Input
Amino acid sequence: MKSLSRAIIVLAALAGVALALLQQVVAVSPEPLGGGVYVAGEVLVKFKPASSAQDRIASVAALGHVVVATLHQPGWVRVRIASGQSMDQVLATYQSDTRVASAQPNYIYRSAAVPNDPLYGQLWAFKSAAGNDMGLEPAWDHIADCSSVVVAVIDSGVNYTHPDLVSNMWNGGAGFPNHGYDYVGDHDNDPMDQFGHGTHVAGVLGAVGNNGTGTTGVCQRTRIMAVRVLDDTGAGTTVTTMQGIGFAVTHGARVINLSLVSSGGFDPALSDAITDAQNGDVVVIVVAGNGNGNEGRNIDLAGNVTFPCAFTQPNLLCVTALDQNYALAGFSNWGPTSVDLGAPGTNILSTSLGGAYDTLDGTSVAAPQVAGLATMLRAFNPQYTYADTVSAIRNGGRSADALAGLTATGKAADVMPSLAYINPPTGLTATLQ
Amino acid sequence: MKPGLRRLVALAVTLALASAAAACGSPAPRTPQAAAPAGARQNRVPGEYLVTVAARDRVAAIVDLYGQFGIKELRDLGGTVFLLRVTEDPGPARMEQVRGGSAHVLAVQPNLVYGTRRPGSAP
Output
């Protein structure tokens, strides 16, 4: 136990260092915006080493200015200038002062990875003023392109011609020119969505980002495999779903999103399909489901159990929905055992049929937030197994009061800590001397 | 599916359909579909079952066991799993009872319904 404790301490320290390094990179990587955008009414002044503190205060006060803060860098102070003074005039005055080494505006920096998609401001799940979000922006400074990983949307198909999806669709070659397969009806290679659900899911996890169009997904670049298992009313079966999983595993998907449920009891055939995915090192993200009417329920209780959420394979993560206050969405099912974590699932804007956009509520749109994160993790860490990916998501999540006791982790998906999470090496042993 | 096995399945289905047709003249002792609980019908596709056999060349055992319910389709789903569609649905419990301790048919289960439900929609 002692050796294990030491190992845990070492790993925790490593995780802390990694997170600190990542944050440091974030802090220095942005470029100043063009056009001299700066904080109005402020300048940064660097005094020469020979100047005393009193000299500095006197210089600033003589101009009617105020030192707001002394910065960590030697000689630098942040100064609030008098109203009505022009920036050029103030800078020229300071630069002519023999005690001053340099002066400049306090430029405004923004993350270089913030996408230019016009509807981005409505994607509260990625960044919200209240901080109730998955923290995508700092993560995008490290990885926004997940195109090394194929993510399968096993659903009602995908509108693969949508302008905000088309360039992120999986290349299925000559055999699958429409980016996937259709297991509904006659079985063919055209998984065009006739219902809209799968198209919305696809946009949440992988709408093309930073293309000046519509929205962005969790991954700004990825490869979406469209597998149609639900018909034009949103209904499918064990057969269509297990076949869809089989297709995804066989054709190289590393992550599967399954935003569908059944309350028909344990399903051995679908369970086998999930196990096949596990054997193929594929992560499967599923939903807790929406309750009857507007009321969620505890799906751990006999009589309420839903599948695939209640399956116990270790490559499976079950997701419930959070609202914009990071409270459990009223409609969302929960389960202290079967449901792993929460993610944003109300008022979620994403791609829709006809090349448009719409908003949906439901655990169906919470799951692809996590599927996108899983895709990002596997792109960022190509050596990650399904177990590493699941571990990073579960352990990297952010504690959410609303989920305590209602989910297995009590956490909400959080991107940066998941990226920074260091999985303990398999078979680690340590000996104290 | 290998050509030989495909022929075997086709033959088996043909025989089953012929058997069902021959049985049409006799009173049906079963109560198809109505025997299934109402709740269960909402969660599964009536008359459809996934049947797992011990080996692919044992598919004829499916016909032996379930031909009595009238086989409409027997579709290869890969591996040792087949989708069986029967004319007269006896319900999952009866299908399992008929399977009994068969050494060739390892499992039978209903083809469950999966789907999406929008928040606020009726159960």
